[in-house]
Amino acid sequence: MLNPSLEQRQVRIEKLNKFEEMGINPYPNIFKPNTTSDELNEKYKDLENGIETEDEVIVAGRIKAIRNSGMFIDVYDTTGKVQVYSSLKTLPEQELAKIDLFDIGDIIGVKGTVRRTKRGELSIAAKEFSMLSKSLLPLPEKFHGLTDVETKYRQRYVDMITNDDTVQTLKKRSLITAEFRKCLIEKGILEVETPILQPILGGANAKPFVTHHNTLEMDMYLRIAPELYLKRLIVGGLDGVFEIGRLFRNEGLSIKHNPEFTTLEVYWMYKDYFDMMDLCEELVKRSCMVANGTLQIKYGEKEIDFSQPFERRTMASLVKEHVGIDFMAIETDEEAKEKCKGVVEVNEADTWGDLMVRVFEERCEEKLEKPTHVMDHPISSSPLTKTHRADKRVVERFETYINGWEIANAYSELTNPLDQYNRFKDQVNRREAGDEEANMMDEDFCTALEYGMPPTGGMGIGMDRLCMILTNSPSIRDVIAFPTMRKLK
RNA sequence: GAGUGUGUAGCUCAGUCGGUAGAGCACCUGACUUUUAAUCAGGUGGCCCUGGGUUCGAAUCCCAGCACGCUCACCA
User: Fold this and answer.
1) How far apart are CA A418 and CA A271, in angstroms?
2) How many domains does chain A have?
3) Pair (A470, A385) in one structural domain
């Protein structure tokens, strides 16, 4: 990738040397612009065409275009474009010489006076140029920009310099995360940090990355979820905790999956899953608003409307509506298997709950484009969740679907230590039966619960996927600055 | 992991039936104090992803590999 023999690079190094011969450091330590493109456009929005002011300003930014042999230079700062105008008649020799040494991509500073050209472009009539950073490599073509996706992901800096959309998406991601923090902190929920290196895997079903600690002489896992640590903090007496952090899952990559991804996990004392639904909606709506300024957005061709309350539907009712099977009226596993034949694959060992989940995932999930909380999952699929207060067959859990994707997963947290122990045992059995993704026994977590954990609501939200939706990004790689890529050989 | 597509100048892309490697932008030289994808004239720039094979001759056909995209499977 680094190509020292590139002719254009050689030319630029020669120009760099010429700056040094002129006694100019092409990489100075400091430079202070005193305004920005945005500020100038606002302040001089009423300046008429062809009018020159005496107002002297200092701007700085990257050269994106040079026209008319340097007479017009487009300098972009972080807020936008400033056109720099240079007159052969008024500029001293030394300044004109600098223009000849400028290239597209250079970062320069310009001192000059504000004017608007005859054609209506707000400009700085240059008096003095400063080279702030000589760029040695040619940028992608101005019209098409950088489109090669591999280069976009591997050299995100080039993508950002060239494509403003990329910058805007990453900025929005930052705004979304910041709004999440703001919203949670406002409610008195504390931001905490829990181990990423974990000796026991837990809190989710997933294949882990394994690493090794030399001094401790033990293998460790990169976390697949922070859940069990966060709940220990609730046991300890923090009444609300959240963590926005990276999870690692050693599974396939796709347009919706990156090996490392970011979630919010939040646990809140004396709340249940209904409270978590409210919190979920507030977080999504507020972050949509800061990113887009509206609650009605487009994702591709689809319209997504966050202005209404999210739908709240039980999994069973959705299955009944879309497929016609009424699981709540089914009494036994055998009857469930009978009803599902010809609808989904049915295995001998399947339970009532396995089948309801399968029918839901295969026949209902992708239809949930409107924001919807899917509630009351079967107990078998949810080892950390409290049983439903009114129906022992299901748990107090919901998953929030937007655009057919699972965005949030939340429950009334299981707090009964004996129940929890048995559910871990069940997971361990599954693991021993070959299920690599089943939870491990976490005895210390059970011990924590034995000291007593108050009724608590918990929720996880996939930040990457939410960002995809809120930034109209077709791939998870578009919302991750540096997505996982294979090493180049 | 399976299927499929792509890989040619710094960037965006052409390249016909297998017969000397092309364009636009960028860069260099010159013209022009005019612009906004500035224009005009001339020029530089290539491991045609890598390695084999077929052939008198391969960017092109065949085989293998590498990287990336997409679809499917696992998964959030």
Assistant:
1) 21
2) 2
3) yes
Spatial distance from the CA of A163 to the C1' of B48 (Å): 28
Q: With a 7 Å cutoff on the CB, does A88 touch strand B?
A: yes
pLDDT tens by residue, A293-336:
999 999 988 999 999 999 999 999 999 999 999 999 999 999 99
Strand pairing class (A80-85; A122-133): parallel
Query: Are residues A287 and A197 both part of a single domain?
Result: yes
On strand B, nucleotides with any atom < 7 Å from a protein CB are 1, 10-13, 24-28, 31-39, 44-45, 66-76
> DSSP states of A107-167 as a string?
EEEEEEEEEE-TTS-EEEEEEEEEEEE---SPPPPTTT----HHHHHHTHHHHHHH-HHHH
Q: What is the pLDDT of residue A4?
A: 66
Distance in Å, residue A293 CA to nucleotide B67 C1': 40
Do A247 and A212 contact (CB within 8 A), yes or no?
no
Sheet with A197-198, edge to edge strand ranges: A197-198, A218-222, A210-213
Question: Does one domain contain both A412 and A269?
Answer: yes
Q: Is A278 contained in some domain?
A: yes
Do A128 and A237 have their domain in common?
Answer: no
| Final residue before a domain boundary, out of A106, A139, A172 | A139
Q: Is residue A234 part of a domain?
A: yes
Structure tokens at A213: 């600690």
Q: Are residues A191 and A297 in the same domain?
A: yes
Q: Considering A105, A139, A173, which residue would you say is the last residue of a domain?
A: A139
Q: How confident is the model at residue A2 (pLDDT cuts 50, 70, 90)?
A: low
Residue A135 approaches strand B within 7 Å at CB: no
Q: Which of residues 142-181 of A touch strand B (CB under 7 A)?
A: 142-151, 153
Question: pTM (2 decimals)?
Answer: 0.94
Q: By residue range, what is the domain housing residue A281?
A: 162-310+371-478
Q: Per-residue pLDDT tens for A50-92?
A: 999 999 999 999 999 999 999 999 999 999 999 999 999 889 9
Cβ A93 to strand B below 7 Å: no
